[in-house]
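Ops channel
N.P.: pipeline sanity check, posting one input/output pair.
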């Protein structure tokens, strides 16, 4: 992600959320138990498949997530939060924050994705060493912050981390891995609630720590899921709550005057 000129870029691991979504959801796709209650004895797999289809068909939604991710080369895990309003066609706007490291705003118009890191985020990642050399601080970091502070830049689609933000801006991408996993250990856990909406809960894992909630009133949307990254080094359990179906706020796309060219830094 070109927050900095190429020789001073720092990696930002945001894959944990996508992995958590994929692992939890795919794990719940399967099983032949008959659901009780509002789903009138339908098999688990049919319920989950129906929920995925309904969620993907939403014109827009808001995703709020919390968990921990590894964000440095030392793989240190830090608490993170994410909130993004997503519209069909790749339009979105949101914020990701990491404890002790600051935050990044991001926005997409269906073609390009834009990022705006705050000063704390910039300075933290400037100091991190990478394969091109040690981190930077002092006057060099001050110069980068002066140019970038309060400004947006267009994400480089070739950068892996930029691709992760792009995936946050597309409903289909967020749910793309649903249905590709196994159902080992999946069990129904009865009725529950998410933000006051009744759900049917499915669990998985040695301690039933992974969950998927399907709405039992109105359209059967996926309302909540909790999972862990496939690679334990990338983070711990993350929980995502989906809401505002078909009525998420419109994305705020930066104006040209707010955008800076990162190549001017190098």
């Amino acid at each position: 992600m070109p927050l900095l000129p190429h020789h001073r870029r720092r990696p930002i691991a945001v894959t944990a959320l996508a992995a958590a979504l994929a692992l939890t959801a795919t794990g719940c796709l399967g099983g032949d138990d008959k659901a009780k209650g509002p789903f009138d004895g339908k098999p688990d797999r049919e319920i989950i498949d129906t929920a995925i289809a309904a969620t993907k068909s939403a014109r827009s939604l808001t995703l709020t997530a919390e968990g921990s991710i590894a964000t440095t080369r030392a793989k240190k895990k830090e608490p993170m939060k994410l909130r993004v309003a997503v519209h069909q066609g790749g339009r979105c706007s949101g914020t990701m924050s990491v404890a002790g490291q600051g935050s990044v705003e991001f926005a997409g118009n269906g073609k390009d994705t834009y990022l705006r890191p705050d000063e704390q985020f910039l300075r933290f990642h400037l100091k991190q060493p990478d394969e091109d050399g040690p981190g930077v601080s002092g006057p060099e970091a001050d110069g980068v912050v002066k140019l970038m502070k309060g400004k947006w830049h267009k994400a480089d689609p070739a950068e892996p981390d930029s691709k992760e933000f792009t995936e946050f801006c597309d409903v289909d991408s967020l749910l793309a891995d649903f249905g590709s996993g196994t159902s080992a250990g999946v069990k129904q856990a009865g009725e529950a609630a998410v933000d006051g909406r009744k759900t049917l809960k499915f669990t998985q894992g040695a301690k039933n720590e992974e969950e998927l909630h399907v709405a039992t009133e109105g359209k059967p949307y996926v309302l909540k899921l909790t999972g862990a990254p496939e690679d334990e080094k990338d983070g711990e359990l993350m929980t995502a709550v989906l809401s505002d179906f078909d009525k998420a706020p419109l994305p705020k796309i930066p104006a040209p005057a707010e955008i800076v060219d990162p190549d001017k830094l190098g």
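N.P.: looks fine end to end. The radius of gyration is 20 Å.
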